[in-house]
Prior knowledge:
The structure holds 2 protein chains of 2 kinds. Chain A has helices at residues 3-36, 54-60, 63-96, 101-113, 116-126, 134-141, 156-182, 185-193, 198-209, 211-226, 230-235, 250-259, 264-289. The model of chain A has no long low-confidence stretch (mean pLDDT 92). Chain A is mostly helical. The radius of gyration of chain A is 23 Å and the shape is globular. Chain A has one domain (64-289): MetI-like fold, CATH 1.10.3720. Chain A is built from 13 helices and no strands. In chain A, helix 7 (156-182) runs antiparallel to helix 10 and helix 12 packs antiparallel against helix 13. The longest helix of chain B is centred in the N-terminal third of the chain and has 22 residues, at 2-23. Chain B is of the alpha+beta class. The termini of chain B are far apart. In chain B, strand 4 (126-127) and strand 5 (130-131) form a beta hairpin. Chain B folds into 2 domains: 27-139 and 299-367, D-Maltodextrin-Binding Protein, domain 2 (3-Layer(aba) Sandwich), CATH 3.40.190.10; 141-295 and 373-414, D-Maltodextrin-Binding Protein, domain 2. In chain B, helix 2 (35-51) packs antiparallel against helix 14, helix 9 packs across helix 10 (225-239) and helix 10 (225-239) packs across helix 17 (395-414). The chains are: A mainly alpha, B alpha+beta. The interface between A and B is medium-sized, with 28 and 36 residues.
Amino acid sequence: MTLASRRSLTAYTFLALPLVFFICVRFGPMIYMTAMSFTNWGLLRRKSEFIGLENYVNVLSDPVFLKALGNTLQYAFIGAPIVIVLGLCIALLLDAIPKGKGLFRLIYVLPYITPVVAVSWVWRWMYQPPPLGVINLVLGALGLPAGEFLNSPNQALPSIMGVNVWVELGYCSTIFLAGLQTIPKELHEAARIDGATGRQVLFKVTIPLLAPITFFLTVMEGIQFLRIFTQVYNMSFQAMGGPLDSAKSAALYIYQKAFNNFEMAQAGSASIILFAIIMAVTLVQMKFLDRKVNY
Amino acid sequence: MKRLRGALLLIALLSLAAGISAQTVTITYWQYFFETKVKLVDELIKNFEKANPGIKVEQVTFPYETFNQKAAASIPAGEGPDVITLFYGWLPMYVKAGYLQELPKSDFNKEYFDKNFYSFVAESVDFGGKYYSVPTAVRTLALIWNKKLFKDAGFDPEKPPKTLDELAAYARKLSKYDAQGNLVQAGMAMQPTGQGHSWIREVLFRQFGNVPYSADYKKVGYADAKAAEALKWYTDLIVKDKVGYPNFVTDDVTAFRSGKAAMNVDGSFRIAALKAVKDLEWGAAELPSHNGVKSNYASYWTHGIVDGVKGKRLEASIKFLKYITSPEVQELWLQRVGELPATPSLSEKYKEDPFISPFLKGLAYAKASLFIDEAGQRNVMVDAVDEVYLKKVDPLQALKNAAAKEQKLIDNFWK
């Protein structure tokens, strides 16, 4: 056995254990769930029978699920781009300041390392209507009308999305900042010497060179927003997903089907649908965004 | 030889010990976590074990939010309890699933329930002549009011409103606003997610002349003009009179406790908790009437024996069930928790208690909605209120939507 093959054998051995774990707790249940989504499995039913696509038909014709799907897409297609753009802006600013970079970075990353449940409850309280909520207190002091936030079917979703943007911003700006620091200074200098303006440097050098990072973050944030759950669960009254389901995400719908209604198979079919959507979105992103740029 | 004799003696002793322990039966009892109830049951178990040597009872509790999940997941796995306390609104679901066993007819039959319990209890635990559970206590709704806020608004603190019209007039005067017109003190807490949905469903609808359900609760009947008038009365308090709105100061209970809501409709289970709040002077009164009609909503938690419990454990479970529903325990339950005895005759001596009597009076004419999916059905009514108040949907249309949704839930359950 050569040294190289012995080395790779060692690597395989070490990788095998997590793989077994991964197969048991990830793929196993996924395959089981897929199979069960074609039955009428429920916690309150003794026997499950094969019922074909009935769960899929039921779930897809449930107006609440369609509403939750629509909400989920709003979270992802509005929330994720905002996070990416803001994250990049903050990283660029952080990169530009000579002093206190560490402190600012810490401040931006704090929300991300705080438990989401705590963040959600603090915001839930800040969003409270007068006379309790801090935000409305400020609005009132400025003589402005009170915002309804989580109590309004139009504002609940943006209010929750805003919190998630605030949380994810810390992560995105940190990764972007790390990316910015890997761009060789010579490239910027060369561009400057060639007479490029600041804007040209940004759009022709910096942003293209950040492409792999941007791609990574787009995929990660896309998934993050598509499976949004904890914020919605904790920030809506009785965990119902906002007034009239206005902020309910697909993940919360799945949770409620499974653990409030005990309809495991229906929850399973809804999970498969969400899984397919996340997969499709990610594949599209990979096709169009995964480009290597070299100078 | 000596050694052999010693060994034989040891074996004899061991088998004796094993024989004794085989005679001891341990049963597990589950209820949701409600502090006063859990403490009381701990004591009851001690009394029960003393009176029944050879039976041990283990109490296990879970938070209300996850109780149903735990029960539904553990019973089929065979890891559940022997005796379990469930909300009556969950009963049809568990009975249909076959998770509870029929109680022995010799002890628990129609005659027993008709003789010992309020009629709404007897009706709602009867599943085609079969009985699966027995309650200890029942609860009703009452109007509770803050005496200090009444005084501040110039009302007699001992005279709560008696009719719905009076209630609305009082609520308007008891509401306070800031410079921007934001509500800072609610005249009346408006919280359909709390007891509000039951107040609408079983009380307001009936008071406006509607019959919300067929007698067997299999047909929804509130999608008509009369019920719409009731819903309009309720939502007008939010939209037009602005005396309160859902989630004001978190929820109705918090708002009332903190003196931010002058009136609320709440259940008898709140008596002990509200009495414990410092500086809160409050009173309880029968729910306001309308058009001369009185109505109330009753509910209860009820104890059953899980399917699959057999032999000695079943015998022990039945003994325990009988004990925790005995008159003696029912009275303790009232004193320590605030829930009313499920046996009418036991409440006689509390007729004069200012806090308990209004709830007791309500029992005489209360209805217990037969829920098949309590959370789902609650949500339907909450959505109806939200549609009117947040989306300006016409009350009748909102009720039509609600009735269609609830009918679907009911039909799916019984099909």
